[in-house]
Amino acid sequence: MKTAHRAIRPFLTVLIAFAALALVALRPAEATPQIRVKEVTFPVTLSDGNTYSIAGRLYYHRSYRNKTLQVAIHGASYNHRYWDAPTVDGHPYSYARFMALLNYAVLAIDQIGSGESSRPAGDFVTLQEAGSGVHQVLDSLRGNDNPLGHTFDEIVLVGHSLGSITATYVQGAYGDADALVTTGMGHVPVPSPFPPDLLAVLLQQPYITLPPEARAALFYNPLLADPDVIALDNAQLLDELPRGLATSVLPFQYDPAVTLVDQVTSPVLVQLGELDPVAPGSTADLEDDAWTSTSDVTVQVLPAMGHDFNLHLHNFLSWIPIHGWIAGTLGWP
């Protein structure tokens, strides 16, 4: 039976207390040397027959063996650093380090065309190519023919925004993960928050860079975001997006064949931000209708949350429920 959507509310005192303790443990990132970070690179072969590299960072506490692995996929205009933003003004913003302290291994990857991964021609990198690359990474992690030399028995795909689209496509096409978490992405059509003239200008280049003012307006609820974080985002976290990936996903809310959402059979957690202009919480009642092949869908609405969940002051309202859902679905890590 599908789970009705619910808001994450501040009266969950035990949850919030646990979140506060975990967040304090993360202040600052420099004071948590027990979280280890390993650079990894996965070779993948795409449809043109060429071999490319997908780069990533593995975050773990003490050891990554015998742990549930979260594979985190960033959204448009970001790379793996979306999942590992630094502590700012005493507040932690690293999802990866937070989850590592809760005994997960977290692999935050750079999608093809972003970060330290290979950068093919911008129009070559479609959703299908990006998805194939992620599939090959996950397939290698199920065996021991991977840069870590270790087999992971439990894998959760975690996406943000465009990364959620990629994760959904991978899960629909290949079924690689045991569970899927999407954040900042929904399948209910809403008006595009991108002005048509801005979109037309952006698509003139094979690699797209969102202007800082557009990112600030689209990605944040300014009442619950530190201006220093927004400035850091535009100075340090900003990355480019392949045009082919952007154009190949544009119709996804209207056509389930784009993301293959109707072919996902695993348990799914969908988190929507109440004030997210890209995937608003007001669509929650209709969201689970898109997931027609799984009976295990939970939709959560995060109060007063903008698009970039990890970079808001109340980011724990996303993080703790994700942990709770994974633990309830797959068992405590």
- Beta-strand proportion: 15-25%
Average pLDDT for all residues: 92
Give the tally of β-strands: 13
Q: Roughly how many Å apart are the termini?
A: 25 Å
Signal peptide: 1-22
GO molecular function, one term: carboxylesterase activity
Organism: Sorangium cellulosum (Polyangium cellulosum)
Protein name: Carboxylesterase
Protein described:
With 333 residues, the chain is an alpha/beta fold. It has a single domain, classed as Alpha/Beta hydrolase fold, catalytic domain (Rossmann fold), CATH 3.40.50. The chain contains eleven helices and 13 strands. The chain has helices at 13-25, 95-101, 127-142, 162-174, 196-202, 212-219, 227-237, 243-249, 256-259, 284-287, 316-330; strands spanning 3-7, 35-45, 51-61, 69-73, 85-88, 91-93, 105-109, 155-160, 179-183, 207-208, 241-242, 268-273, 297-302. The strands form three sheets. It has a nine-stranded mixed β-sheet with strand order 1-13-12-9-8-4-7-3-2, sandwiched between helices. Strands 5-6 form a two-stranded antiparallel ribbon. The longest helix has 16 residues, at 127-142. The chain is globular.
